[in-house]
Prior knowledge:
This protein has helices at about 10-20, 75-90, 110-125, 185-190, 190-200, 210-220, 245-250, 255-265, 285-290, 300-315, 360-370, 375-380, 395-415, and strands at about 1-10, 30-40, 45-60, 65, 70-75, 90-100, 130-135, 140-150, 150-155, 160, 165-170, 200-205, 225-230, 270-275, 295, 320-330, 335-345, 425-430, 440. The chain is of the alpha/beta class.
Amino acid sequence: MRTLGLTITTEIFEKMRESLFATAPDEGAGYLLCKEYSCFDPWRKEKARRFIVVDFVPISPEDVVSRSHTSITWRTNSFVQALNSAESQGCKLAIVHSHPNGPAGFSQQDDGNESMLWSICRNRRGRSVEFLSVVLTGDNKIRGRIIRGKQAFDDIELTKVIGNRYLIDYPGRGEVEPEDIFDRQTRLLGREFTADMRALRFGVVGCGGTGSPLAHMLARQGAGHVLLIDKDRLDRTGSHRVHLTTLKDAIANAYKVAVISREIRRIGLKTQVAMVQEWVSATDAFEALKSCDIIFGCTDDNHGRIIINRFAYFYMTPVFDMGLKIKPSKEKPGVFDAFDGRVTIVQPGTACLLCRGVVNPQRASEEQLQRSQPDEYQRRKDEAYIIGGGDPNPVVVNFTTETACMALNELINRLTPLRIEGKNPDQITRKFDRLDGDQYRGEDNTGCRICDNRDFWGLADVDPALYLTA
Ligand SMILES: [Zn+2]
Ligand SMILES: [Zn+2]
């Protein structure tokens, strides 16, 4: 089974970095505790797995046997203890060491040492034993692999460090010539950007007014893997705002994901599109979402948002949630109670959509009810127990498209900073009825049972999924 990714938070990464480079230019080493989970790779159509780093443990100096500019060795007893301790905590063990002056990758010496460690494990635990190995260079190149036999190594396809900025790395990064077709983009965003877009796996939840321009632009930026999730079919009233679709598609009542993926392929920029015609809560959609590196929340469905909101913390996967809210004032014509395009970046360390009042939990359960028991929903609606379900708010294509652009601006700024230092907020709101400039801020999330609960960070698979009972 392939290993698609390893994710680390900036917080753990910094702790690891400080410890590993304390003895530079000599190498340093330590352990990472990793949570493993399986997923379904919708592009290759096969099961795959991922790892999340949940802690770093330094190796105590007395356990180090030798260290130099090019190698480090430590007592095997300490390794075996760490392996057992990781397993007792439901984790896989990774050894991590530094290459202060490179190379970005594993040396022959590493191959030898790790094969030896594997043999020791096999003698005690049998042939199926495996562990991970991670190497970090002085200039922040980070690579990982699985050791599953003597001289048998499987590369981890992509490693990412998530925080206020994203650091991503994968075998071959920076070694290939940038694709000339993207030359004008490379001039601004650098030679690695398009390669990074090719390597990352993007999930787009919701393919309507914001999701369709977002998926479209991802393809034009060179995204290699885009997963579209939406259960809805096109209808005539959506034609004016869903990019890449025609009125003919709408009259035919085609699935949004089918039409958008067909058109993205037609663009010809080598984007592999995968799709799931389901709500995000459905098992197929959820398993495919677990294979993604970055998720765009483009749904206006509260229940879907509750799921991706928790997902961001349980699976340590950044969610760029966006929404457009246009509410004309009932009292004063021409004045708006709200006229906002919003992007919120949800990930460990930032306030979630519940804290920010973006999701309405009561509406979420109503939507659930409407889908699972339409008769009961109607009965409650007739008795006026239902708060939502009134007239739809207005939507206009330029505002939904601009909101999608805002989300991509934030992604770019985390991958390849363009803005001045310190302007990298977790939420941006653009007030379309004013020319005040964007509003951005953090949010106090003290006591939030989702995002202020570190026990949830990187918990991955639990039963029921995401500890959601309804
Ligand atoms: Zn090494
Ligand atoms: Zn919260």
